[in-house]
Amino acid sequence: MKNLLTVKPLLRVSLFIIHCALFINFSASAQSPGTIKGTVVDSVTRKPLMEASVSLLLARDSSLVTFGITDGDGKFEFPKLAVGQYRVLVTYVGYRGRSRSVSVTQNDPTVDAGTIDIVAQSQTLMEVSVQGERAPIAVKGDTLEFNAGSFKTRPNAQVEDLLKKLPGVEVDRDGNVKAQGQAITKVLVDGKPFFGNDPKMATRNLPADIIDKVQLFDQASEQSTFSGVDDGDREKTINITTKKDKRKGSFGQQTIGVGPKPGDDARYSGRVSYNQFNNGRQISMLGMANNINQQGFTASDLGLGNNFGGAGQGQGGGGGSNVVRGGAGGGSGNGAGQVGSNAITQSWAAGINYRDGWGKKIDVVSSYNASNTNTLTSQQSHRENVIPSGTSGTVATRADAGFVRDQANGSDNTNTNHRFNLRLDYRLDSMTTIRVIPSLSWLNSNYNNNSQSQTFTNEGVLANSSLTNYNSTGTGFTGNNSLLLFRKFKKQGRSFSVNWTIGANNQDNEGFNNSVNTFNGSSTSLTSGVITKDTVTGITTQKINQRNNQETHSMTNTVNVSYTEPLSLRQTLEFHYNLSDNHNTSNRAVNDFNGTTNQYDLVNSSLSNNFVNDYVTNRGGLTWQTKRLKYTYAFGVDAQQASLNSQNLSRETTLNRTYSNLLPNALFTYNFGKSRRLRLNYRTRLNAPSVNQLQPVANNTNPLNIQLGNLDLQPEYSHTVSLNYNRFDAATFRNMFVFLNASRTDNKIVNSTTFDKSGAQTTIPVNTNGYYTVNGSLVFGRPLKLGAQKTNLNLSTNLTFNQGTSFINNQSNQAKNWLIGQGATISSNFTEKLDLNLSGNINWQSARYSLQPQQNTTFLNQSVTLDVYYQLPLKFTFSTNVYYNHYGGSSASFNQSYTLWNATLARQLFKQNQGEIRFQAFDLLNQNQSIVRNVTDTYTEEVRSRVLNRYFMISFVYNLRKFSAGVTAPRDPFQERNGGGQRGQGGGFRRN
Questions:
Q1: C-beta atoms surrounding 841 within 10 Å
Q2: Which residues contact 690 (CB under 8 A, 6 or more apart)?
Q3: Within a 13 Å sphere around the CA of 351, how many CA atoms are in the beta-carbon half?
Q4: pTM attached to this predicted model
Q5: pLDDT tens-digit profile of 834-850?
Q6: Angle at 511 between CA 507 and CA 515, to 5 degrees
């Protein structure tokens, strides 16, 4: 407990700063003397307008101070204001916006803005008014819309910096975005994909100053969007719309930097982006190269064949959890991606994104990008296994049987990836549209791993040791293509759609396994190699020199057909049918080295296998949906028949099985009004076992952990209930988002692990029941006032619980894991020159195991991050980032803290500050480190990794901005979202 409560001085100071900031905000608000009030009326009828949006802006830069709505008498009031010059901006649906300048002084602290009359859009404007201004935040149906101009960012900021300013939106150190407590999986630009479905391509490569609006919503599936019948499949999505006057011209950023690092290679970073927009036509080109762990894209397709059981290998069965992570990858520049928190990575990448309309009937969006990453990993791990005793003679009959393993692991992994994406919409006529969406990816991988380990019993006796070198090269191809046909009819609400998807996944990997393993006594996990035993010492030695070829091919064809028939203005009946055919082949060929021929020509039949698996499903059903003004509900049921056919060509055996299931579903949404919405969703799903889980052949890539398949596996059947509640109060600017998800899975596929007396283990997947998981989040935000400046406070609470059952030495082990996290963020533009963000997080986690209470663990992880940006005289700017992390509850060697401090001094150049020269320092205290703690039902493990430490860099940045005046909005009939989030009927897509 003492370890849990130990907090280093810097953490205390940082938490004290948070408390002081809150106190100062409240105190300053209480002492601010000013008040501005007024009344909003219709210019003709002179009647007061209720719920008109009123924004209070600073006169000098139009930044938002506070926001509210008028009451039933059309009145508004903003109290506790500092002395200064302000603008009152009034907006109302169907009326022209109008603003009025006011001043708060010490002599006249209470200001009556008087009666502000606004003019309906159809009327002639008879007096001066400000047009085109919007409220900072608007709720339109199921869409939350932010006016980007109301959230000030530092010069030359990227979209990622803008998102950090938005209420309810979080961006972590790796650039991953969460909104309303849920991960953002897709970011659109003007309603269309940008470089495929990679969110970071938009957030880290587009400048914030071209953004007009940021829209946040849950995007439905293609067919659900068209038919209007919700199928429950949603993706948390952000759509960023560009300013109309930025849609014709060129913009981009070029950066080049270099810096020495004593005793190591020089650090370098180069980056170029160029965008040419011409209304509907958009061309974007990106290029980058560096060795400081920076990426502007999401690292995917991590490599083939690198499945060697390094420091982190091991499956948790039903109760495993990776619980603590620390460290940072590198890079301190604006918008720099940080990757490889447990490694050192150098990479290059290039890509192009194209968007245009070909005539009046075709719209196209396509992208291509190539990337190469080289990742060097060096790790040391300490693993403690606690094994149940007295089962099948595998472990000596002791209550505290167990093993301790120390391992050093190093790897060199190089991946080259090519990705191509296309989306083409073709309107045959006003009633029929065809959409084609291919996505292709090619990968080449080269992997080299060296590992040495020693395993001891609890008494300190050597149980086994291993020295392994594993090398592999591989190629992979992943391709998907969706062909969608949308057809509407003259009768409103009647529609027909077909979605045919073809998916292919082919991987070919060749690996060489050279290892020497010793065991104190015999080992039941020995499957191959040259095995010798010393009769005097009892030591068994296994030498492996093998080549393995793994070819895996998968082809999936899926057809979804949907027909909707309106029963009335409010009720719709949908009939749908799904046919899916998944064909998989897995051919694993293992050959031992022949010392006579010096070739790998000795077939190892016990480790080789040729396996074919077919999984075919037929599912049909209907959904009945009712829509009312305030609420929507839907009920549906599907009947599914699935057949599993597995052929073991090497063993000449065949397995045929048929499964029949009913899959009910339900949906309920309720609109309380005043920006409050509730959504409840219930879904059932089937998940078939993979071909690798079924293939009944041993995988000895890690000789101390043999992996086997299981032909007797059945599909998983899961029930999931989710709840979403959103509330945004326009009068107080407060927001609250609640998310809760609970699921139960029958026939859950978990691991059954068996240990022998020497500490080696064999793992096989099996089915079991009793798997439950609950996760939820509560996000709360509100503005605070520090004088005339608005400060945002965001609080986020996260809860996760899962319970599962796995098997250790044929005994059932129930695992329960809890995680409770609390985060707080304060962000403010104190002045035009000072921007500050302060955040803190505390996470408590506990793991409990029924079979081995010795494995039970509880610990605490605390972190504080401080970001400061300040404009100095003579066009100099200074920015710094301090990240402090503290671990408690681990073993003494890992129970520690570290501070990562980055700083940048920059000088803006040229007349319009397009240029900038930067001096950057990363990890000034030279404390950066990576610590990972893994807790599963079979072991507790702590891993240290080599990371990028202190370096310095000088960089030159040039920002290109060249736009044309008098730009019109691009034609975009296939815009993904409309202003109110309602479904359009034009060709089956949502329109602006």
A1: 18
A2: 584
A3: 26
A4: 0.77
A5: 888 899 999 998 888 88
A6: 150
